[in-house]
Design a protein that fits this description.
Elements: E1 9-12, H1 15-21, H2 25-35, E2 39-42, H3 49-65, E3 70-73, H4 76-82, E4 86-89, H5 93-103, E5 108-113, H6 116-124, E6 129-133, H7 149-158, E7 163-166, H8 173-179, E8 184-187, H9 189-192, H10 197-212
Parallel strand pairs: 1-2, 1-8, 2-3, 3-4, 4-5, 5-6, 6-7, 7-8
The chain binds ligand 3NM.
The site of ligand 3NM has 17 residues, from strand 6 and helix 9.
Function: Condenses 4-methyl-5-(beta-hydroxyethyl)thiazole monophosphate (THZ-P) and 2-methyl-4-amino-5-hydroxymethyl pyrimidine pyrophosphate (HMP-PP) to form thiamine monophosphate (TMP).
Binding site for Mg(2+): 74, 93
GO molecular function, one term: magnesium ion binding
Length: 215
């Protein structure tokens, strides 16, 4: 059975952010999980698959402890090796088909989309959700071009999949993105680089609950 995913508070990892902050990566991930993160993506660039697997195994133990699903960015072999719930892949039909073939129908496969055409292609290809961005300017992914909320709303209206916003989202932006009809927000620096990770995650969780209740 495919696991039910709550995309609302989606943490994407980047050890560069915790290193810069002088904090322990695993402690930061655990603090975020404890505060209420609902989904984690292991996104560690600049390492070999073996190194990613070693990091991923530790993150998987933390996610399991908090009963939170784990996806792996762009590395199907790593996702398989650590028993992750799925992968997040870039734009390419072949990689989506290959991910499905290698990980099976129960795996969660997310695809990055930057416009309606890419979103439609991912829907046709059998993606489970889409990551759409960058919604706001971001320092974390230097080559991400800023899409803005207008095209984001259009994609949400046209595509019958859960849509997650990404790029430059923090406490202030979170409610704006959710009000567009997003299933969730994927965030790196506003969580792993926060002065107080617990307070930041809890504030967004409260904002989400308030929106759900229509306050
Ligand atoms: N993908 P932060 S933007 C990983 O637009 C990533 O597809 C993006 O980091 C896209 O929350 C981005 O620190 C960086 O802005 C997200």
């Amino acid at each position: 059975m495919k696991r039910t995913i709550d995309y609302s508070l989606y943490l994407v990892t980047d050890r560069k952010v915790t290193d810069k902050k002088g904090r322990d990566f695993y402690e930061a991930v655990e603090e975020a999980l404890q505060a209420g993160i609902t989904l984690v993506q292991l996104r560690e660039k600049d390492v070999t698959t073996e190194e990613r697997i070693a990091i991923g195994r530790k993150v998987k133990i933390l996610c399991d402890h908090y009963d939170v699903p784990l996806l792996v960015d762009d590395d199907i072999a790593c996702a398989k090796a650590i028993g992750a719930d799925g992968v997040h892949l870039g734009q390419s039909d072949e990689s989506l088909a290959r991910g499905r073939q290698e990980l099976g129908n129960d795996a969660i496969i997310g695809i990055s989309a930057h416009n309606l055409e890419e979103a439609q292609a991912a829907l046709r290809g059998g993606a489970d959700y889409l990551g759409v961005g960058a919604l706001y300017p971001t320092e974390t992914k230097k080559d991400a071009s800023c899409l803005g909320l207008g095209p984001f709303r259009e994609i949400i209206a046209a595509i019958s999949l859960p849509i997650v916003g990404i790029g430059g989202i923090g406490k202030k932006e979170f409610p704006e993105v959710m009000k567009c009809g997003a299933a969730g927000c994927a965030m790196i620096s506003s969580i792993l680089g926060a002065e107080d990770i617990t307070a930041t995650v809890k504030a967004m969780k409260m904002a989400y609950e308030a929106l759900r209740k229509g306050e």
